[in-house]
Write a structure and sequence with these properties.
alpha/beta; single chain
């Protein structure tokens, strides 16, 4: 990897990210998660423990400041194997220019990492669909998707129109050997403004072509949706159509009635979302890649190690759950 200059020596990096506070926190969070998971984990899981991924938005501060050439080797050291992108840029001062997609692919390959997917702005699919599919193929990822809601028109007609749009993009992705996916937040589980008995997510699921449009279930936001718009079981969506959910966001939440969402986002293993029950309830009929995400990770103290410390502790807790 001599063609990509690191911003500082790896020994300095490891020195900066080591510390007694981090070690103690890791032991306490991980120990509790591992003990609990051992007691209740099912005998067969559909989320493989050897394919734990990370959404790079969780460590966006480190990607920007340190660059892919430092961050990707560190993620490999922690044990992550799957990378979900949230953009393909870093600080231009690292190389004196922007990094290229082929250079990112080389870093992935050199560190035994696989690109599993990418979050792309929905407008990019409208204006540059083939370019986004090109980028996915250069990086070797099998999936490419968006974290945007299908539409901001929260009516049945609005979601049907959005489904039609996704079907076109999905067919184009399928033609290139890729799977297009949509990542939910809580709002997709709301009820249509024109038909209050109809859930928007159900409209999207029913009207998208299962051959071409897939879903990435963000488990945290699904439980927030259940809290705000009761009447559904997040696991049931996966259990009923398991092959439509190739990817999960494994994000943890701690119950907080003062939060309108019902939960605060926390490191994995530090919350109380019913992950053991969810993993058991979805059944073993398909394989789903579990991807850790924590929107608040860059605020983790101490900083450094900040978000990378959260990434390491969360990986260990996830490994314990999937045991």
């Amino acid at each position: 990897m001599s063609h990509i200059r690191k911003s500082f020596d790896r020994r300095d990096f490891l020195r900066a990210t080591a510390g007694t506070t981090v070690a103690i926190a890791a032991a306490s969070v991980t120990g509790a998660a591992a003990t609990s998971a051992t007691a209740a984990a099912p005998s067969k899981l559909s989320i493989p423990k050897d394919r734990i991924g990370i959404q790079l938005y969780s460590i966006r501060d480190k990607v920007s400041a340190l660059g892919f050439g430092v961050v990707l080797p560190e993620l490999a050291r922690i044990g992550y194997t799957e990378i979900e992108f949230a953009g393909y840029t870093q600080n231009t001062s690292i190389l004196g220019r922007q990094i290229t997609l082929p250079e990112i692919r080389t870093l992935l390959d050199d560190n035994g990492l696989s690109a599993v997917g990418s979050h792309v702005g929905i407008g990019n699919f409208r204006s540059n669909l083939q370019g986004e599919l090109d980028a996915a193929q250069i990086l070797g990822m099998p999936h490419v998707g968006t974290a945007n809601a299908p539409t901001n028109v929260n009516t049945v007609a609005g979601y049907r129109a959005a489904a039609d749009e996704f079907n076109v993009w999905g067919a184009a992705a399928t033609a290139r050997g890729l799977k297009l996916y949509q990542h939910n937040h809580a709002g997709e589980f709301a009820f249509a403004t024109d038909q209050p008995s109809v859930r928007l997510y159900d409209v999207f699921l029913k009207n998208t072509d299962p051959r071409h449009v897939y879903l990435e279930l963000d488990i945290y936001w699904a439980y927030v949706g259940q809290y705000r718009y009761p009447g559904f079981d997040p696991a049931a969506y996966v259990r009923n159509q398991p092959y439509r959910y190739p990817l999960f966001h494994m994000k943890d939440g701690d119950a907080n009635s003062a939060n309108a969402n019902g939960f605060d986002i926390v490191e994995f293993g530090a919350g109380d979302l019913p992950y053991e029950k969810f993993v058991r309830d979805i059944g073993p009929r398909a394989s789903h890649v579990g991807i850790w995400e924590q929107d608040t990770a860059p605020n983790t103290q101490p900083n450094p190690p900040g978000s990378l410390g959260a990434a390491e502790r969360s990986f260990t807790a996830l490994k314990g759950l999937l045991g």
